[in-house]
Structures are given as structure tokens and as C-alpha cells.
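Exam prep: given the inputs below (a chain plus 6-O-phosphono-alpha-D-glucopyranose), describe the expected output before reading on.
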Amino acid sequence: AFSISIAGGGSTYTPEIILMLLENLDRFPIRKIIFYDNDYERQKLVADACEIILRERAPEIEFLSTTNPKDGFTDIDFVMAHIRVGKYEMREKDEKIPLEHGIVGQETCGPGGIAYGLRSITGVVELIDYMEEYSPNAWMLNYSNPASIVAEGVRVLRPDSKVLNICDMPIDIEERMAVIAGLESRKDMTVRYYGLNHFGWWDDIRDKDGNDLMPVIKKYVLENGYNLELLNKEVRLNDPDWLDTYRFAKEVYRLDTETLPTTYFKYYLFSDYAVKHTDKNYTRANQVMDGREKRVFDECSTIVEKNTAKETNLEIGVHASYIVDLARALAFNTHERMLLIVENKGAICGVDPTAMVEIPCIVGANGPEPLSIGEIPTFQRGLIQQQLAVEKLAVEAYVEESYQKLWQALTLSRTMGDADLAKVILDELIEANIDYWPNL
Ligand code: G6P
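Solution:
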């Protein structure tokens, strides 16, 4: 059985991940779970509730929660990392500062995403160093955002570390595609997909017999995007903002009907629409703080007060079972095919070999073997090159402490445009991130 450290123990996602791990114990046996966070108070509430859940459902699992790196990372097989450096207070600033200037304000897209990226690199590298010091054979399964910039930062700063970067966005959309195609599960599909994280496209989707599912999915997306309301089936993320994003995928698809897009192209290709449909005084960060964060923390308090989780309405993070699939692939050499963020090394023709791209990989005990994608259309290649330059400049700016390069990164973002305005936004972001960023 395996020993796991959950870094970002105080995350609102932690309880649903614990429930998911418990649900999967027969596939992935666990002997110890450690919560690690640098925020004692925040983690304590989540940990106290999870300890009760574990006591009731799997008393054989040893449990510990700590803010001490040595305790958090000793005797560990896997680190599951989902940290948010600066928490929702900083996400709110990432969103509101650009929006105040009429520019997309989103946690991983545009200026806000770059700002978050510069905070996250420090946090993730710190976790890698702890892991390597106390459990040198462990793997880190990282899904901390913004995944692309984080992956590039790790490639540059810790090139030999055992870190795999994975994201739930393609998984969420594939679950929707499976519903559209009338399949039981996304695992009944084999996909070809390429791009950067939160910035990719599917160009081939087959069922188990090799039948082409693209036509039926495309037909649906042309009318409804990835919105499943018509099918009376919601997978998750069904609040109004997300529904709008899923619906809007149809506009993105109409612009290029060869491939099926991930949803955040709304922010890059239809930036004006995105800005117009965002309340700059009450952004997604506010929704999450008043919604998910409150709900999860309240529920944790109830569990602690009642000293039982038998009647909890905390939900299992079913979609998060991809993390178990990844851990299993490494532990049991399953050779499962999954989408990971890995170094390009020629997989996508015409894209920098050092780019951290999101593509299908076969994952076994030695890690991922990326599959070759080959040539891609000019439209996609152009968008990738531009966004890649943004991400690489952001990481170079971080490493070299270069104001100039960060200004270039913001200016080059497709959400931006004007260099003067990019500078105004950059200066405000620098001030907001004074406690987090390198000194530019
Ligand atoms: C999707 C993305 C994640 C992102 C999340 C934000 O799942 O793939 O990368 O973190 O949405 O959701 P939220 O509810 O926090 O806005």
C-alpha cells in the first residue's frame, strides 16, 4: 500500500479528493495520508473533518496533518500537489486588476494568469525540494495552476525532478463528449489532442471499435457547445459562469470547424465578449469564496461539531479519479494512455522542442512516453507559438528578475494588445504581488 502527501491540505478540493481516494482503495491501496499546508488554521479545519471521515471509513489508514516539511514529506510515495499561492484573495486581484482596464481577468488566462504563474512557481519548486530531500524516490503529481507556466518553471528550474503535470480540463470536457456520443464513460474513447494547457484541441476521437466520433460530437457542439442541459445531464461545474463558458465553445468551434477546442479560447479569441460578460466587481474568486469555500468549510465544521461524517453531503470528486489513474500507471506500470503536460521534443511539428505541451502519453513505471502528433494547422500553430512565447517570457522574467521580459509577456498575450496598457497593468500587478514575486 502507498503513502501519500497532499500538498495544499487546506484546499477546498481536499475533502472531495479524500472521498475519491477512499472510493478507489481497491484499485489503489493506501497506508498513510499526510496533509501538508503552510497555513495552519486553514488546513486544521479541513484536516479535522477528513480525520473523522478516515476514522469512520478506513481506520487502517494512518493520518497526519502538518505544517512541518520534514513530517509532511518523509516516507512518501506520491505527492499530490494542488496549491494556490496567495489563495482566493490574490485570485481576486488577478481577476480585478486587468478587468478594471477592460482586459480579460481570469485565473489562468492573460495578465492574471501570468501573475498567478509567478507566484506559483516559487510554491511548487519549494514542494519539489521538500519531496526530494525527504522522499527522493517519490513522484509528484502536480495539478497546481496555472499548469502551463508552472510546468515551464519546473522544466527550467528543476529539470530532473520526478514531477508530472496534469489537468482536469480536458477530462471534464471529455466526460461531456462521452455523454454527447452516448457512451458510458470518457474511458470508452481514444483521443488525439494537442496544445498547451487550457489551450488545446481534439482532432480525432474514436470509440473502442475505432469508429469516428468527431462528426456526432461536432454536430452537437455546433448547436450547443459543451452545454449538456439539453441532454438533461450535468457532469459538474454547472453554475452560470461555467455554463456560459461551455455554451460559448460553439462560437470557438465555428471559427475553426476542423478541431474541437478546450473552453478557455473564449478568453483569447473573444476577449471583448468575455470582458463584457464579467462583473468586474464580483468575479469568479468572489463566487468561489462565497460559494464553494463557504460550503466546504461549513460542512467541515459540521463534521467536526457532530464528530461524525456519516451524514455528510460532501461530494466525491469523481472526476478527480484521473489522479488515481496516473498514480496507478506509475505504481503498477499500467501503460494507460492519458493527457499530460510534457516537453514537446518534436511531438508537435513546428513547435519549440522545449515547449511544455499537453499531448497524449503512455504512462508506465518509468513515467510518460509522449505520442507523436506531427503537423498541425496554421491557425493552431500560430496561436500556440504566441501563447508559448508569453509563458516562456514569464518564466524567463521570473528567473532573470526582468521587468522588461514580463512587460513583453503581458504585451504578447492575445488578451492584451496595447503595450502601454500592458505596462499600466503590470505595474499594478507588481504592487499587488509585492510579497510573492521576485524583485523585478
Ligand atoms: C477547471 C480548470 C481548472 C480550474 C478550475 C477553476 O476545472 O480545469 O484548472 O482550476 O476550473 O474552477 P473554479 O470553480 O475555481 O473557478
